[in-house]
């Protein structure tokens, strides 16, 4: 509870209320005697009631002021208000004018617990006074807006004799751009509503000045007969504010023109961090608008898993009192961003870190280029290895049939055409040439695959179930002859972004191998399953065939012309084709196999 020493409160000359800092009522918890004189009966009527009952102006105006004071923890002055005092046996009804101000009262935790609501008296001379002693420049206008009287302070302000100003309409004293707005304030004051505003004077009024103006209704016997205009020269203050605004504008322009991301964090006593400001590059890089960032806690903006590392680096910068740098990758609305981040601590006069200034140099394009280059290098290395292997194997495989063909061709020139040796040599020559033709066809097929992989265009949406069913139909006769069974567990709605022909080739070659290398002592069974694993898709094709003995690496299985069985015949390029097609669609393939148990191929696509 707010405790006020009675003697202090009673002696306080300015009208004062103590308000609880709790919306929406802002209850009155204390009323001093001066406020009771300003608003007769206030001490009994207002205590524990709403603050709005003690304020003659709109409740929205008071609420906005109190909300601002509680949020900023700074005092706020309201426009001049008219406090009407009812007539008594001793005196007629009067109106006093006062300027209310709300001042925060903080508790031990530094939070606003109460608001001190004071009212400063605004002197208004009586109707028949000569106006010489009023502290500010003052003019009296009739209801038509014509200047009738002015005090000496006005001459000092305008540096013109009052005789040159009297008899002029109030618009004569106001700069053209402000006249319409000032006319509205004058109209409201003539209706009994005190006005408080800033306007620029006209050169015709002597000097061009920035003026803080108050318009108060002039009352005679309870009736409004004119309007008081009280003017205060704030030109120097206005010019200073304009200079500050201009500096802030130049800072903002410079701040936003920097290509690197810049952010300013407020460091809270509880160890939290919130965004105080961000530049245009921050918005463009992250895709987050300023209003969704400024004022928010960093935990609401920086996603995991980077957040914990970031918080640790903030703490290290404060502890070491030095700049800390690191590389960070995070996901934002604009995509995944990689940047080189640095934060520098800023300390106040008490040695407490009040802010962190952060700079982020966007490395996203560079890291993406590095990744592409690394992938390209790996692909070139793989292709070079494949090319070396291909060159070696082809030259090795060509050597025997070519040597045989040359030998048989030479022999044919030396033997009788009608002899059995000639006939047998001719048959062997034809066999050797067929082998050469098969090898050249393999070369053509493999080079064609490489060309197609390089030209692999935009992926299409392919149904895995449909591609598998198409391969099964193509091998239906071979499956029937081998008494084989294919069990397919692939959902019809399981789709892949890839190449339809490649998927068909994968299913066809693996099914064809399963049929070709089945075990004679048991019926062939092939199980095909596919399912999603998060953002990936897993496909397995398992058979109960002959199997084979695996080497130390899966890569050996997929090499060109790699064969694991002496019969039946095969070209040794089927698994090479499967791997090429899988990798062309960004996938990987693995195999597990045991002799006389069967083989299981697992393919994963992102």
Automatic annotation (TrEMBL):
Signal sequence, start to end: 1-20
Known catalytic reactions: ATP + protein L-histidine = ADP + protein N-phospho-L-histidine
Domain (PAC) ranges: 319-375
Family matches, as InterPro entries: HATPase_C_sf, HATPase_dom, His_kinase_dom, HisK_dim/P_dom, HisK_dim/P_sf, PAS, PAS-assoc_C, PAS-like_dom_sf
Origin: domain of life: Bacteria
Domain Histidine kinase as annotated: residue spans: 393-606
Molecular function in Gene Ontology: phosphorelay sensor kinase activity
Residue ranges constituting the PAS domain according to the UniProt record: 135-193, 247-321
Record's keyword annotation contains Kinase: yes
UniProt keyword Transferase, yes or no: yes
Keywords: Kinase, Phosphoprotein, Signal, Transferase
Documented EC number(s): 2.7.13.3
Pfam families for this protein: HATPase_c (PF02518), HisKA (PF00512), PAS_4 (PF08448)
Record-linked PANTHER family: PAC DOMAIN-CONTAINING PROTEIN, PHYTOCHROME-LIKE PROTEIN CPH1
Protein name: histidine kinase
